[in-house]
Design a protein that fits this description.
The protein has 619 residues and is α+β, with helices and mostly antiparallel strands. The protein is 47% helix and 11% strand. The chain has helices at 2-30, 34-41, 82-92, 104-117, 127-136, 143-159, 162-172, 182-190, 199-206, 221-237, 243-251, 266-283, 287-290, 295-314, 325-339, 374-377, 387-399, 432-437, 441-451, 453-461, 488-495, 497-500, 533-549, 599-602, 606-618; strands at residues 53-56, 62-66, 318-321, 345-352, 357-362, 406-408, 429-431, 502-503, 509-513, 519-521, 528-529, 562-568, 574-581, 584-591. A 5-stranded mixed β-sheet has the order 2-1-3-9-10, covered by helices on one side. A hairpin with a 5-residue loop joins strand 1 and strand 2. In the C-terminal section; belongs to the transpeptidase family.
Length: 619
């Protein structure tokens, strides 16, 4: 009976065993190796440390250091003194070149001390573990973090060579006061590059990362100096430093020479950041999505753009700009001196029309970085400054009329809209050149009507005014009555077309390069013809006569060419002058942020005097 039951049991268990083997084989075939899991979960092939980026003026000088959180300038290992490398190995990880990222004896020693004190007093971390902590993990003193640190360190050792790990480490560690990596620390504390530091200065900086708060030399200089001496003493004990040199080094005077980040010309720099976003968006094909009326699409595009720009600025790029630093300084001085200390503001834009480069931009009388920039963010009524673009040039382009042709300057009234000339007078038949130079309103409206509203706006649309729309297609626009108006940058940019008839957006960024000088981004604008040569020649004569005998006489100065057009809005709330010289197109706007009457300064013509100062300088 027992035999019989045994056979039955075996016969029942065999299928179960077969099933177990089958399932085990399936699981085994699906199982991944530990290395594969590590590579999938902890990809460390490319460790990218955030670095400072730089903005340069046309003369190559740095005008702004850009940091998105960690101030760092990356150095190759060959550019870092061997003394510093040896110092960290002796004091932090003597078995660095022998272990695989983990020093078991160091961990055992740390565990013993921690268990005795019932707190985490020592970490026993290798240089590789410290790198893992700085790049991937927090600095919390917990066992969970410590375990993660070990795993990350092991993975880094699998993928990186010892020199690569040392290079990353010396660039990753924190030296307090926002300085990450040895080069940033050297520049901040001593105002010179790492290669120029003495051994005593190198050892002093090396004392900081062990406890950046406690060894902050700005608050605990003596503690930092004592640790420096202990570290040098360790080098002597390990045969890495001679006693005589040790005594010399600890007696060397450490004198801090703090540097401040370069952050000049805030008006211009703020606009460069805005244009950088536009350049990246254009180059990465995000333009259409950023103009979408679908909120979800727009938000996703904005998030994607912010991510790309941040990654770019973290990669240590150089943004090359067209800034003329001398002209920028003089522009600021001119705006401040001619407006005075009151609540009246000003904005100024200078464009080199041969290159279509924006060489100077003033966003306010006393502009603060990242605040409201009136040069490109303020949209104001243009007044008569719109007449060349919307009335006269389109009329000349369509009719090829002579500037001595007569036009009525008499009173005008249409459907209860009855604008007057600024003087209040009614003129008879006047020449186009006279009407333009004296900025009569009724002749401009009549030319606008003769050309046709839609045709006139077709020319204006070519300049891509952001806030000009179909709502502005009415008669009052002929003399500056827009719903929102335009920015000083937009209006000045449009006037560059009177140089040679072509229009192209003015840019501040000439190129963006990486650390090897490779061009990453560059504008690919193409100019488009707006006016033919005959129209340009006539418009330049009209603009010139305005400075000779018209409303802009105070802007005139003898030179190869000078011409422009004034603009004053109702109740003198805005004062404009945009004009050209042989090389530059410059626009000036003056007004209050909350529009109100400027009659008290109108007779002094500050907008014309500012323009004249800058244009004479730029020549």
């Amino acid at each position: 009976m027992r035999t019989y039951l045994g056979y039955i049991t075996i016969s029942l268990l065999v299928p179960v065993l077969i099933l177990f083997i089958f399932l085990s084989h399936q699981e085994w075939s699906l199982a991944q190796s530990p290395y594969h899991v590590l590579d999938e979960r902890i990809p460390v092939e490319s460790i990218e440390l955030a670095q400072n980026s730089y903005m340069k003026a046309a003369n190559g000088k740095v005008i702004s250091e850009i940091s998105t959180g960690e101030k760092r300038t990356y150095l190759k290992l060959e550019d870092i003194p061997l003394f510093l490398e040896n110092l960290f190995i002796v004091t932090e990880d003597q078995k660095f070149y022998d272990h695989a990222g983990i020093d078991l004896s160091g961990i055992s020693r740390a565990l013993l001390i921690n268990s005795q004190n019932k707190t985490i007093e020592q970490g026993g971390s290798t240089i590789t573990q410290q790198l893992a902590r700085n790049v991937y993990l927090s600095h919390d003193r917990t066992y969970n973090r410590k375990l993660s640190e070990l795993i990350y360190a092991y993975q880094i050792e699998r993928k990186k060579s010892k020199p690569e790990i040392m290079e990353l480490y010396l660039n990753a560690i924190y030296f307090s006061n926002g300085a990450y990596g040895i080069e940033a620390a050297s520049q901040y504390y001593f105002s010179k590059p790492t290669e120029e530091l003495t051994k005593a200065e190198l050892a002093f900086l090396a004392a900081i990362p062990n406890n950046p708060e406690y060894y902050n030399p700005l608050e605990h200089f003596d503690a930092t100096k004592k640790r420096q001496e202990r570290m040098l003493e360790q080098m002597v004990a390990n045969g890495a430093l001679e006693q005589a040199e040790y005594e010399k080094l600890i007696k060397s005077t450490i004198k801090l020479d703090l540097s401040t980040p370069v952050d000049l010309h805030p008006d211009y720099v703020t606009y460069v950041h805005q244009e950088l976003k536009n350049l990246v968006a254009s180059s990465e094909g995000l333009d259409k999505s950023l103009q979408s009326t679908d909120v979800a699409i727009l938000k996703n595009a904005e998030a994607e753009l912010d991510k790309k720009v941040k990654k770019l600025l973290n990669s240590g790029v150089t943004i090359h700009t067209a800034l003329d630093t001398k002209l920028q300084t003089q522009s600021k001085t001119a705006v401040q001196s001619k407006i005075g200390v009151n609540d009246i503001e000003g904005a100024l834009v200078v464009i080199q029309h041969h290159t279509h480069e924006l060489v100077s931009l003033i966003g306010g009388k006393d502009y603060k970085k990242n605040s409201f920039n009136r040069a490109y963010q303020s949209y104001r009524q243009p007044g008569s400054a719109i007449k060349p673009l919307l009335d006269y040039a389109p009329y000349l382009e369509e009719t090829d009329a002579d500037i001595n042709q007569l036009v009525s300057g008499a009173s005008y009234c249409s459907n209860s809209y009855c604008p007057k000339n600024y003087s209040g007078n009614s003129y008879g038949m006047v020449k186009l050149r006279t009407a333009f130079a004296q900025s009569y309103n009724t002749p401009a409206i009549r030319l606008f009507e003769k050309t046709g509203m839609e045709t006139s706006f077709k020319y204006l649309d070519a300049f891509d005014f952001k806030k000009v729309s179909k709502k502005d297609h009415h008669t009052s626009s002929a003399i500056g009555g827009f719903e929102y108006g335009m920015s000083p940058l937009e209006l000045t940019n449009a006037y560059t077309s009177f140089h040679d008839g072509n229009y192209q957006p003015a840019r501040v960024i000439t190129k963006v390069t990486d650390q090897e000088g490779k061009v990453l981004y560059k504008w690919k604008d193409r100019s488009k013809e707006i006016w033919n040569k005959r129209t340009v020649a006539k418009m330049r004569q009209l603009l010139h006569e305005t400075t000779l005998s018209g409303t802009a006489r105070k802007a005139y100065f003898p030179t190869d060419y000078v011409g422009g057009k004034t603009g004053t809005t109702n109740d003198v709330k805005d004062m404009w002058f945009v004009g050209l010289t042989a090389n530059y197109t410059t626009g000036v706007w003056i007004g209050r942020d909350k529009p109100s009457n400027l009659q008290s300064i109108y007779s002094h013509s500050p907008h014309l005097l500012i323009w004249k100062d800058i244009s004479q300088t730029a020549e």
